[in-house]
Write a structure and sequence with these properties.
alpha/beta; single chain; 157 residues; 5 strands
Length: 157
């Protein structure tokens, strides 16, 4: 029975993976889950368009000029931070995220006091944004760990 029980890390990453399923991004669905020291979920988020804007009103393409999703999409970590009722509640928390944070999200993570990141994928690790993110997080003393749990995806039927 004990071998079937999920660890806290597996549980929280599964919540991030499930949250990612809410994203309408056709190429990269990302989810995040923020947890406090008592293993209580503080907030969750996924990548999506800003509140009040219909998903179909803006492009989900990687296009150019105003036709690029990168100009509009709020990242999962950013949404999870913004979804909290009390920003100070994030001080000392752990962020579980399905994709390593970009440099912009790294700044928000540091500013809110999140002290640890557990990430599932780092498929953009050689990009300038990810390298800058790692530098920001390291300089700020945020612990960074790759997820080592058994579950790497959530399948909904």
């Amino acid at each position: 029975m004990e071998k079937d029980r999920v660890t806290w890390e597996e549980y929280f990453m599964s919540l991030a993976l499930l949250s990612a399923k809410r994203s309408k991004d056709p190429s990269t669905q990302v989810g995040a889950c923020i947890v406090d020291d008592d293993n209580k979920v503080v907030s969750i988020g996924y990548n999506g368009m800003p509140r009040g804007i219909k998903d179909e009103d803006l492009s989900w393409n990687k296009g150019e000029d105003l036709d690029s999703k990168y100009l509009y999409v709020c990242h999962a970590e950013f949404n999870a931070i913004l979804n909290t009722r009390n920003g100070s509640a994030l001080n000392g928390c752990t962020l579980y995220v399905t994709l390593f944070p970009c440099n912009e999200c790294a700044k928000a993570i540091v500013q809110t006091g999140i002290k640890k990141i557990i990430y599932l994928s780092n498929k953009y690790e050689n990009s300038l944004e990810t390298r800058a993110s790692k530098k920001i997080l390291t300089l700020a003393g945020v612990k960074i760990e790759e997820y080592k749990g058994r579950f790497k995806k959530v399948i909904l039927k």
